[in-house]
Amino acid sequence: MAITIKGSTAFVTGAASGVGFGIAKALAKHGANIIIADIRQSAIDEALVWFSDNKYPAYGIRLDVTDREAYGKAADEAWGVFGGVEILVNNAGVEAPMGKVWLNTFKDVDFIVGVNIKGILNGIITFVPKFLASGKPSHIVSTASQSGMYVVPGAALYNMTKAAVVALTETLKGDLAGTNVDASVFAPGPVQGNLSVSSKEVRPAELANEETPTQIFAPTPPPEIPTGDSHTAGFVAPPPVFDFSSFLLTGEQAGEYVVRGIESGALYIFTHTEFRDSMKHKHAAIERAYPDEPEKAGFKQAFSFLTHNAVYDEK
Ligand SMILES: NC(=O)c1ccc[n+]([C@@H]2O[C@H](COP(=O)([O-])OP(=O)(O)OC[C@H]3O[C@@H](n4cnc5c(N)ncnc54)[C@H](O)[C@@H]3O)[C@@H](O)[C@H]2O)c1
């Protein structure tokens, strides 16, 4: 059932900054009422100014997505503000210190799993029954990342939580087939945001590391350029050190992809075509890994529920 964004209400978590703010802005521009759900009240207040300046209807609710009881209350409150909710954007996320995963602490694990996986499940388990009961076309978008599709070295915890959001949404969309509710996973590439700063700000005291982690993710430095004629003869200069910021999408640009994904009922919502080759690279590795043996006759019929999933037939 296709959803009409104009006139709908979207509950966007982590909407006070970065990607979530951009999604909320794009949805507002396409005519949705916005509920900004975020753990940081000061950031909500700041974000609301943009909506009032631009005369878009928006309302803020302070919510920690890991708090299940508060989530239920926030959903009820949101339903009352604009007379219903049709879109949930499960976007709030955090990062943990990067580096070799065995050097992460159990507190890092609990923090990132709590927000990035359990927080998303809290949204789904709170909202889907309400969406189904409403009978109205409704949509859930959950923010993963390209790193949930193609892992970033040294970011195991983050990659793992984002891959979980991909698998969760792939399954959810299939389970919702034939109902009034649809689901998409948003897996953007680099977008302007404040994750490293906000993740420190929102980390609860009981999950604070006792010591500052010594492992800091340091990208491999570019090779040194030798100087002097004898050294530079035949020397091929390394690629220039890129200004990464020039490649970042704005939150609003990312939000436009989300709008289109909701309208088209996409399973995957991607932002950067540059990752297409990365997917080919990964899928080639997966295909190569299967034993080079003949298939057993009848296996695929017997196990069709394992070997074929119609969710991947979607355009
Ligand atoms: N920026 C990127 O390049 C990028 C790329 C891929 C995926 N993402 C994902 O996009 C999402 C947003 O990232 P961002 O870059 O916009 O970061 P951000 O820091 O700008 O925004 C994150 C927001 O989430 C809120 N938040 C954190 N914990 C919360 C909690 N427990 N309950 C409610 N709100 C909470 C923060 O207060 C903040 O406003 C994350 O899920 C992130 O993993 C970002």
Please describe what this structure looks like:
- With 315 residues, this protein is of the alpha/beta class.
- It has 11 helices and 7 strands.
- The chain has a 7-stranded parallel β-sheet with strand order 3-2-1-4-5-6-7, sandwiched between helices.
- Helix 1 packs across helix 8, helix 3 runs parallel beside helix 4 and helix 4 packs parallel to helix 5.
- It is globular.
- The model has no long low-confidence stretch (mean pLDDT 93).
Can you summarize this structure?
About 45% of the residues lie in helices and about 10% in strands.
- Strands, total number: 7
How many H/I helical runs?
Answer: 11
Parts with pLDDT < 50 across at least 5 consecutive residues:
none
Task: Return the structural class.
Answer: alpha/beta
The secondary-structure element order is EHEHEHEHEHEHHHEHHH
CATH architecture, by name, is: 3-Layer(aba) Sandwich
Global mean pLDDT:
93
Q: What percent of the residues sit in helical stretches (DSSP H or I)? A: 40-55%
Look at the structure and give the CATH class. Alpha Beta
Strand content: 5-15%
Q: How do the helices and strands line up, and which of them pair or pack?
A:
Elements: E1 9-13, H1 18-29, E2 33-38, H2 41-53, E3 58-62, H3 68-82, E4 87-90, H4 106-134, E5 138-143, H5 156-175, E6 181-187, H6 195-202, H7 229-232, H8 251-264, E7 268-270, H9 276-289, H10 299-302, H11 304-307
Parallel strand pairs: 1-2, 1-4, 2-3, 4-5, 5-6, 6-7
Helix pairs in contact: 1-8, 3-4, 4-5
